[in-house]
Amino acid sequence: MFYGFDSTIKNILKSRARLPHGEMPSKKPAEEGGCGVTGFISSIPVRGRHIYEPSVQMHNRGNGKGGGIAAVGLSAEDLGVSQKILDTHYLFQVAILDPVSRPDVEESAIQPFMEIHKAESIPTLDDYREIEGLEVRPPDVWRYFVRVKPDVLDRFITENSLQDLDHRRAEDEFIYQNSFRLNQKFYASLGEKQAFVLSHGRNMMILKIVGYAEQATQYYCMEDFKAHGWIAHQRYPTKGRVWHPGGAHPFIGLDEALVHNGDFANYHAVSEYLKQHNIFPQFLTDTEVSVLLLDLFNRTLEYPMEYIIEALAPTSEYDFDLLPPEKQHVYRYIQAAHIHASPDGPWFFIIARNNPYKNYFQLIGITDTSMLRPQVFALQEGDVQIGLICSEKQAIDATLQNLAAEDSRFCPIADKYWNARGGSATDGGAFIFTVKDAGKGDGSKKLICTNKFGDVVKTPDHQKPYKITPELSAPKNAKDITRALKDGLVLDDLSDFKRYCCRQIIDWDYVSIRYFSNELEKVAKDNDEDKSKTIEILTHLMDRRFPTGNKKRSAILQIIKESLTSIFNASPDLNQNTSSRYRYIDWEKRNTLRSPLNDEKVLVINARDFQPEGKNCDSRLLCAAYKLGWKQFICYGYRGQRFCACGLSKDSDGVRIDVYDSSGDYLASGIDGLEIYVHGNAQDQLGQIMKRGKLVIHGDVGQTFMYGAKGGDVYVLGNAAGRPLINAVGHPRVVINGTCLDYLAQSFMAGDPLKDGGFIILNGIEFDEDANVIDQPTPYPGSNLFSLASGGAIYLRDPDHKVVIDQLNGGEFVALSPADWELVLPYVEENERLFGISIENDLLTVNGHKRDYTEVYRKVQAVTLDVLAKESVAAEEWGEDWQDDENLKSA
Amino acid sequence: MKKNDIHFQFPKTVQVPDRFRNPIGKYTVRRNARCISCGLCAELCPYNVHPRYDIFSKPLRPKDYKCIGFKCKENDFFCIDRCPEQALTLRRNPILETLGDYRWTSEMLIAHWEMAETANLPVVDLEYNLGNSGGGFDKIRFKTPEPGDYLNLGDEDVDTSIILNKRGDGRPEVITGIPCYGGGMSYGSTALSVMISRARAAKLLNTLTCTGEGGYPQELVPYADHVITQIATGLFGVREETILYTPMVEFKYAQGAKPGLGGHLLGDKVTPEVAAMRETVVGNALFSPFPFHSVYSVEDHKKHVDWVKEINPKTLVSVKVSTPTDVDMVAVGSYYAGAHVVHLDGSYGGTGAAPDIAKKNIAMPIEYAIPKVHNFLKDEGVRDKVCLIASGGIRNALDVAKAIALGADGVVIGTAELVALECVRCGHCESGRGCARGIATTDHELGIMITEDWATQRIVNMYMAWRKQWCEILRQYGLKSIKELVGRSDLLVHLDYLDEEERSKYQPAPQAELII
Question: For the domain that residue A354 is a member of, what is the CATH number?
């Protein structure tokens, strides 16, 4: 049965055959589609309360019927044990669902086998009803610090012929099997569940409840508890009545906790594979089988992490061709062995683990090969480092804001945000944040971020972090700054002053920048004209990329953001009796909304306390304001509120919306005429069914950008994640300066671009540390470009012809004609105006040499596919011309 | 509920004759050369099978589709026997052998044409309640009622309305006059006149019809209060204003006839007009993807629903799903995500455009799915908050009532409405000039075969005939409202689960008759 495995592996797997187990169920007890997942790991221990805010913000990804948290790298002090005990003992946590069962649990599964160092019931609030919205009493949790009794372990080793296995690893296996027995006896075999093991690894723990994840931190008094890494999961079980949290995430391997967002299509195939290895699921969810799979690869087969990731998310298609031959050789074997157990369908894992053998903690995010779940990774480095993985970017921002409020070494904005594509040849779509000893001898730790292949991801290390200092001392060059500012603002045309600012920042230190930005704040108070000028300047600094010298861009953004926020906050209320073009409204004052009077022009909406959706969301307020006659909006303070600019219906020409902070999903979906500018990164599902108007994003956009769009002029400074412009029709015209992960313009049906149809300009560039425009490694890394498209075109900036025909499925490369360039030119010119990406110096310059557009750009156009246009019966009957353009005009 | 909500004025019924000179009937009456044109047959026949104009010396060809057939023998006006020259012959129409299929039998088709013409139940002896499929609704019967339960009520006092929004969330309740609304058939799949007629009929019947996935033609705007905007996976023709027009948005996740396949319009049907409506390329086949690319899980779905609710604060949301084995989970998930209507689409539906292999082999039959979901929602304690709508092979008034008794609140009707317009179920809907009856076509010449007035009244008539059947069923069981019938599966029997003696009390499943 275990042909090819070495005898120890064989013996481990054999020993599991003796475990009692039930029959394989014919059906999963509950479908659970999606969820919200979040996690972070830091070089210093942080309090549990910081998982609170991101969890709250992802309420709408769960339904309050299951939430859980896990922590690794715990604080020995908070647990009341010595560091040595924490490192060496198993932290065994059991959820007692039926209080009567506890003595039985202890007598049958703990006392006979374990030396108990400490046993306690973990503290909770007196009454779960103190927590608003918590409806089901969470289970009592008992915590034991244990080691396996030596004689028990010896017997276990002898009985199962595990003499060749490391003694400690044998103890791990015993713990694992003991938990399995406990779960089988007190959980899986029963209709009325009594108890189950929450976690049993070293230096890590899991808590879960029927409720939202953050309620677990509240109920179990974990808000002040410190740990290096935290993950949380909001569950969305579709079955309504849930009385115990057995099915909630995270699930355990041994020393790892895994949360999962998604739903396998091949649950049975994976279960069957596990069964062949004598592993039987007990909780019957996708997530449990995922972690069992991980545990099998990790602990039993002892694969390195890279191979585990390959087994879960195999590299395929064009990506496989790009791998070096030696990797291909290994991967081919891994795939041959494990493809049947590779999860199929939408999934995204976040794993928090402790590796007690190598003394590090890890946070790992792995994405599926089709990128069917949203995910964002982020990294911040400096005095302390933190890595974050989340379903939504706004949850990352919320975590950082929370941390920064408590500890000034954290900055509210991360240094780097990115999306990933599973199975990609460049990074594997998986990132690992490892926290280990910094080697300074003082016990301090450092964080390193690596991708699947072990390549380090880092931020420029010569840049100094910014510490928020409460006292503002004027810098030495204060006078110069004040003068420059005065001179600059006098002119009507701000372009010179903008250039000056962008140039200066490299020389200024943080104090000067802060001083400059505070001075602008002051000026903004003077009059409307200065206010709009300062907003313009600060927004420009926020949007543009410029060299920052030894300062972090994230810190500069933070300073600018604070100033902008305070300028916006200072706008007069609607019922205030002053004359100003700007009027302020927020959640508290939402009832003051009225039509604009006199010269009132700009409605400043502070979205912070609005609901992310539903009738109390800010986008409804925006619609109401639009109906009352407001046409210009500044929306800020976003914490992932969705649907911004939706619902204004058609012909919303003349409306302009400026969006700041962490805007949410579905922004600009369906817009028809208006202009919207996003100053920063944007999230998922932007511009769905967009019809007309202008959308400008000064950053990256998330998944399924412009799905089913029908038109509009769109400019994206950064990358678009997976599946942009699927099923787009009509005449959308889109400039993406970065690249896309995969599936760009699948089933694109946007007519003939030269006859008013749609197209995409994909530039494939990025900015280096010094804000120079450089080429990305490839303009398009995915294996599917323009698949099954029947109309439109992609103008691909690809001077080195890196994109190959294999990446197309139905399209063809052709050279640009002068007509094409004439069509493209106004859009790249507007792109230059918006983002400062020069046509001459950036786009048409390759390796320092100016080239002709025909040498730089390639056109991907649709070919007539048999599958789409079979020999038309009608054409046969009436000749080919029955449906040409003339017909269309007369119709 | 306001009284006039229940008793809104049902539309007048008007006789709407067949479009063709020689409509298909169950019987053929032939006149041979012996006829002396005495005019006796015309005088005798109360069904006007033998029309005659005084000024013509020769008799006209018999309108044999009105003939009630051999059972007329008992009557003293039986023309065949009374003809002095024995010039008339009566036969079963041999075309019946080629017409229809096991589900939609030839008799059921002919009966529905008659209902659409007369707004009454057919006088010809046609089996229109049961098909020949050997299972499903054809094996389910209403129990023999207790005579004592009978309620003596006029049709006007029987309530056949249903409420689409039971969430009590401040959005309109939307009450339909009949327990049915029209299924989605896109601009591109049917002729524009058919679309408009369906909308007009929906307005008259105070119910809804659905755009399907092909855009919202401006011609529908006058009926906007009765037109559902469908958002399907291709998002063709969906714009904000089309969401703002509508009383209900239907998210089409899957179609019972072809789960996992998405919509599909062959290149031939993508005429310049269709392409313009969908803003695509003329002559190129249009596939809708099988999933929504923005929805890969239930929380994505919730976001999707929230999006529509945000755009239109008054509209309801219906979620149309097919019937996989875990349909109960899907339904409850949709409810928790904010749907007002959960629409289950079973496997028997679909026009010619759905591939046979998919139509007959993938989804769960609707009669299994309805009670599964109904009971599951009841156990969850949310059945009262959600409107459960079923579709997929619901052919006639009895099927509607059975579906409701199994646990649905109402049903969606697609094919039957086309049958009212004289669809012969030839199954060539997918090809551009394929529709011999001018229904499923985007061709100009074929499209004018149907006028809006005619088609509107035909659909109205059919539903008004159906309503007569529903009222009778309700009266038999002492019910005043179709809402009381929901989930009364105790009123149903399945022939396969009865013992021999019990079974013999019920009408057996009809057998295909061989015509010689």
Answer: 3.60.20.10
